[in-house]
Specification:
The protein is an alpha+beta fold. It is built from 10 helices and 9 strands.
């Protein structure tokens, strides 16, 4: 759904926004005189900011703003992505810039909150002409930026046990570990149930999902950079059944391994 807004508070003007369940937009331009906050909640996006490339999969925020040339489109191996964005301008943006809230580098959406619902609420409030809705929209946007800044400030403050847990789980995902959660927990000096609870509390995902995501990320790299048969890649990552590997890869990547390889290697 496209929102044509042009709604002004004392310090912020909302210009337009959009919520696109299956987005195929292709943007490549310099943004002049306005800014946007972009949010994807599914699919894959190839993004370039001033020539710096990013490959985004899943739930990510990024910003577009005057200065560098910014380009983004659906990532190879994907047909669409779930996209929301809002465009704005005004003196308040300069205050956000001074405070370090905006612009933002591409940033994974923090765990534990439904940012799709929050963004939809922002879009709805920004379309209404009354002053309270305009003020609410400005606060909703600022709230999103504050949450992202707070997450950035704590990103590198993982405790030692969590760093070690991530290392062990990543090794298991890449076929270098035994993948036994009981043994991994023992190496960390805790019970398996404690590991599962603490890891989910700290990261927002259970250990099993972390392993699957890491395994698919490694598979993406092997499919794109080697000519190894898909069956061999599955074996390297600890799969005994190539068909089960293909189903899991498609579940997380959105396309089968063979199609993903074709899209990456031409």
């Amino acid at each position: 759904m496209y929102y044509s807004i042009t709604v002004t508070t004392a310090e912020l003007t909302f210009l337009y926004g959009e919520s696109v369940p299956k987005c195929t937009h292709r943007i490549d331009k310099h943004f002049v005189g306005y800014h946007t906050l972009q949010y994807m909640s599914g699919g894959g996006v190839s993004l370039s900011i001033g020539g710096r490339p990013f490959e985004l999969f899943g739930r990510w925020f990024w910003s577009a703003y005057p200065g560098p040339r910014i380009a983004f489109h659906v990532a190879p191996g994907y047909r669409t992505w779930r996209h929301r964005y809002i465009a704005f301008k005004g003196p308040l943006v300069q205050r956000w810039t001074t405070a370090g809230l905006f612009p933002i580098e591409p940033q994974a959406a923090p765990h534990g909150d439904d940012y799709g619902d929050r963004f939809d609420a922002l879009l709805r409030a920004a379309t209404r002409p009354d002053k309270w809705s305009r003020l609410r929209a400005a606060h909703l946007l600022e709230g999103l930026l504050i949450d992202l800044a707070d997450t950035r400030a704590h990103t590198h403050e993982h405790p030692a046990w969590l760093k070690r847990a991530m290392e062990l789980l990543t090794s298991a995902a890449n076929g270098a570990g035994d993948g036994d959660y009981h043994d991994i927990a023992a190496k960390l000096g805790m019970a398996e149930s404690t590991l599962r609870r603490r890891f989910r509390d700290a990261t927002g995902v259970p250990p099993h999902e972390f392993v699957l995501q890491a395994r698919v990320n490694e598979a993406r790299q092997l499919l794109g950079e080697t000519n190894d048969p898909i069956k061999l890649i599955a074996q390297k990552l600890g799969y005994r059944d190539v068909y089960f590997f293909s189903r899991q890869f498609r579940q997380f990547a959105g396309v089968p391994p063979a199609l993903y390889r074709k899209s990456r290697q031409g």
